[in-house]
Amino acid sequence: MTRMGAFFRKWGLSLAMLAAIIAAVWIGVVRRMNWKKGHVLVELKAIRTPLGWGYDILTDGHPYIHQNIIPDIAGQYGFRTKEEALAVGGKVKDRLVANQMPVISIEEMRQLNVQLPDDTTNIKK
Q: Parallel, antiparallel, or unpaired: how do β-strands 52-59 and 42-49 relate?
């Protein structure tokens, strides 16, 4: 028996298992990298502003929408509570994830029980 034959008889199975583990890890890394190219992580965070509350929508950790005032009303007013900001931001985020226009109307904000300023008669069109 040759030295090489004895080496492979003793270590062959271990080397084959090591090669299989390395291949499995490599395939997993490549698949994860390809998956991440086609997917975006979307996050919603409430932010405190000088006018009250607002929200940020982040994509892959980077700012995508920074809403520090109540959208679609005349004037600059912040949301009264963190919960109001998150409710509106959640609706906008859901539309963004569904590949729709990330907008919200005054009527939808009222349905979410967002307390709007009294002068919403001057609605921006």
A: antiparallel
* pTM for the model: 0.66
Q: How many CB atoms lie within 10 A of CB 63?
A: 10
Distance of alpha carbon 20 from alpha carbon 14, whole angstroms: 10
pLDDT in tens, the chain (125 residues): 677 777 777 888 888 999 999 999 999 998 888 877 777 889 999 999 999 999 999 998 999 999 999 998 888 999 999 999 999 999 999 999 998 999 999 999 999 999 998 754 444 44
